[in-house]
Amino acid sequence: MSPSHPPQLAIAVAGLGRMGKRHVRTLIERVPRARVVAVCSTSAEELAWAEQEYKNAGITVYSSYEKMIQHVGLQAVWVSTSTNVHASQTLAAIEKKLHVLCEKPLSTSIDEAEHVVAVANTHPELKVMAGFSRRFDASYRDAHAKVAANTIGRPFLVRSQTCDLLDNTGFFVRYAKPNGGMFVDCCVHDIDLSMWFLGDVIPKAVWAAGTITHHPELAELQDVDNGVGIVEYWGGKLAYFYCSRTQAHGHDVCTEVVGTQGKVMVNLVPRLNNVTVASSKGIGHEVQPEYWERFEDAFATEANEFTSAILDHTPVPVKLELGLLSLKIGWALQEALLTGERIRFDERGNKLDGRGARASL
Q1: Measured between alpha carbons, how far is residue 261 from residues 38, 152, 155, 166, 265 in Å?
Q2: What is the rounded radius of gyration, in angstroms, for the C-alpha atoms of the chain?
């Protein structure tokens, strides 16, 4: 009798841009309990590439998401398309009784995101997860464990930044248009980290300011390429964020968590590897050029844990509701950026005042 093979999750990836392609490769090479059975894209160039790349991989290439989620035997979808279709594609997958891992943010609309969460909660048999990859990074997990072990006392402040390498190809400006503003897209990981490290926090007030230093086209989108935001949480806790799309040295993501008896720091000096060069010009090292080099392992861990949650019938490691609260804070910061106002919340996290930024974007 031949040995039985362990079950594999039949999963599809929506979107074949820079992230979608990488997610497919991660699933194939680093997630043994998953099997990629389908992919989709609406780009003729991406479809032609996929037909060649996956022709011997047993992966069906679809020209529409609607066709892909009808793939026979499909069990789960990894949504890695532009933010403006995250919600609709997640809802369509839920309707087809498919498990979903949706990249951040859940939507460009709070109302739409709330609807997705409500619908997902009516299907407890399905695993619908928010994609916040930094929660799966080994260094961030170690830092979180130290905070939880009271190593720094009571945490009360998080300083976190996401700073990308300057892009002069035009890709970033094209990307920015359908993906929300600086604080909704770029800053949402930092917002999530602040909630993770500070505990069960609720926003009390937010402020924001920004500037355009390299991409004047963003003015038409009412966005910036460098922004600073501050969140005051109820209970005397604070978060400070810096987001940038214009760094000269490379991808620079770091976080500090300050407590009553010390602080924990993650990646304050970014490095490509452990090589340091000493020469007549001084001592230095290279930096990772973009986020993938920094978080490739985190994405693999995320994919493995999502797969295990489905196959082993365990809770997802990151609840969908967390993506909703991050989005609410991100939109409040975007509103503060556009209006110059301080945006306030009541003790239940309901916004009290301020002109709606969503209508302006």
Answers
A1: 51, 5, 9, 37, 14
A2: 21
Determine contact, residues 203/155, Cβ cutoff 8 Å: no
Tokens 């400006």 locate to: 173
Cα distance between residue 80 and residue 85, in whole Å = 10
> Which of 220, 306, 332 has its CA nearest to residue 13?
306
Triad 109, 85, 120: Cα angle to 5°: 75
Question: Which residue from 146, 228, 231 is spatially nearest to 195, judged by alpha carbons?
Answer: 231
Residue found under tokens 């945490």: 155
At residue 95, the 3 state secondary structure works out as helix
Are 193 and 235 a contacting pair, CB within 8 Å?
no
User: How far is Cα 69 from Cα 90, in angstroms, rounded to an integer?
Assistant: 11
Q: In this structure, is the dihedral angle defined by the CA atoms of residues 160, 165, 168 and 174, taken in order, positive or negative? A: negative
Q: Which of 315, 320, 306 is nearest to 30 (CA)?
A: 306
Neighbours of 8 (CB within 10 A): 16
**334 contacts 184 by C-beta, under 8 angstroms:** yes
Series of mean pLDDT values for 10-residue runs along the chain (361 residues): 73 96 98 98 97 96 98 98 94 98 90 96 96 96 98 98 93 77 92 96 97 94 95 98 95 97 97 95 94 95 98 95 91 95 94 54 32
- With contact defined as beta carbons under 8 Å apart, do 176 and 243 qualify? no
Model confidence over 4-54: pLDDT tens digits?
Answer: 667 999 999 999 999 999 999 999 999 999 999 999 999 999 999 999 999
Measured CA to CA in angstroms, residue 63 lies from 51, 54, 96, 177 at distances of: 11, 14, 18, 23
Query: Is pTM beyond 0.90 here?
Result: yes
Give the whole-angstrom CA distance, residue 215 versus residue 225.
Answer: 7
Taking Cα atoms as reference points, which of 186, 172, 290 lies closest to residue 242?
186
Taking only the tens place, the pLDDT of each residue in 276-297 is 999 999 999 999 999 999 999 9
